[in-house]
Amino acid sequence: MSTEYTYEMYVEAANYIKEKIGGEAEIGIILGSGLGNLSKMFENTIEIPYIEIPNFLVSTVAGHAGKFIFGTLNGRRVLCMSGRFHSYEGYSFEILSLPVRVFKLVGIRALVVTNAAGGVNLDYRPGDIMLITDHICFSGTSPMRGPNMEQFGLRFFDVSRMYSPELLEIARKVSKNYRLRFHEGIYFWMSGPNFETPAEIRAIRAMGGDVVGMSTVTEALTAAHCSLPVLGISVVTNMAAGILQQPLSHTEVMDTATVIETQFTAFVAELLTTI
Ligand code: HPA
After folding, report:
1. Whose CA is nearest to atom 9 of ligand 1?
2. Does the structure show a pLDDT above 60 at 3?
3. Domains of the chain
């Protein structure tokens, strides 16, 4: 539980990173499944495995490397999380607030969050990109549950502009330079690790979800609490359950991510140097 975390523990983790990278970072990015090649474009790279960082968590999923990768992109100081933490690994929503609070204390002014997601909207196809305009999370809890940490934000906080309209506008402009199919829509959170049932997917569509995924929302909510603008980007790696006559698999997710990786990475890299 985050209630076991004191403010000083977040500061200690952030200070460790700042010492390693020689100061603050400007932009933070969290990379989703199979989308980890971005850091190959960095210069002056410094890797910091999570396991070295005081009070940090360790990721358990194949395809998630479990380290911060710092570097410069066109001179901009970018701190990348390669490997993220999910509720399905057994972490509480409260503890999932940790990485974003550490990002905040490392000094970033914007957070880009990418993920692999299932396409619920029938106009979407595997390989499409969706800029997240909002999310739906019916988990019944929040990463900010528990005593409020005033150093980060208010007890009751607004999330109506959580996915920054300004960052969305920049992403919209940059997207024009890429041969990928872009959409804007709603990310619907599900706990996993099982993929959804076809009936759940029909319900999610009726409720307004365009894609479904198992990450991102705790990060976006934590960022909103500490007034950190977020840009959320989903890669549609598969059509959600019941749409096509085939079972879903993590292999399909990783294969689609690989197909679009070069274009997607170039898009994200341009974004990081534009925002
Ligand atoms: N459902 C949930 N999470 C996902 C999916 C999906 O279909 N694809 C990639 N992540």
Report:
1. 117
2. no
3. 7-274 (3.40.50.1580)
Which H or E run contains 80?
strand 76-82
According to DSSP, the residues that pair with 67 across neighbouring strands are: 49, 82
Distance 184 CA to ligand 1 centre (A): 17
Question: Is it the case that residue 250 has pLDDT exceeding 90?
Answer: no
Look at residues 133, 106, 110, 86 and name the one whose alpha carbon lies nearest to residue 268.
Answer: 110
CA atoms within 13 A on the CB side of 138: 9
Please indicate whether residue 4 or residue 218 has the higher confidence score (pLDDT): 218
Cis peptide before 143 (omega within 30 of 0): no
C-alpha radius of gyration, the chain, whole number: 17
Q: How far apart are CA 177 and CA 251, in angstroms?
A: 29
User: How many Cβ atoms are within 10 Å of 222's Cβ, its own excluded?
Assistant: 28
Residue with tokens 């029938």: 122
Q: Which is the catalytic residue, given 10, 64, 97, 144?
A: 64
Considering 15, 88, 92, 261, which one is annotated as catalytic? 88
Q: Within 10 Å of residue 223's Cβ, how many Cβ atoms? A: 29
Exposure of 72 by Cβ count < 10 A (0-12 exposed, 13-18 middle, 19+ buried)? middle
For residue 212, pLDDT over 50 is answered with yes
Phi-psi label, residue 43: left if phi above 0, alpha if psi -120 to 50, beta otherwise: beta
Whose tokens are 């549609």? That residue is 236
225 is known as an active-site residue? no
Structure tokens at 79: 């701190």
Tell me what the mean pLDDT of segment 25-44 comes to.
Answer: 88
- The gap between the terminal CA atoms of the chain, to the nearest Å, is 33
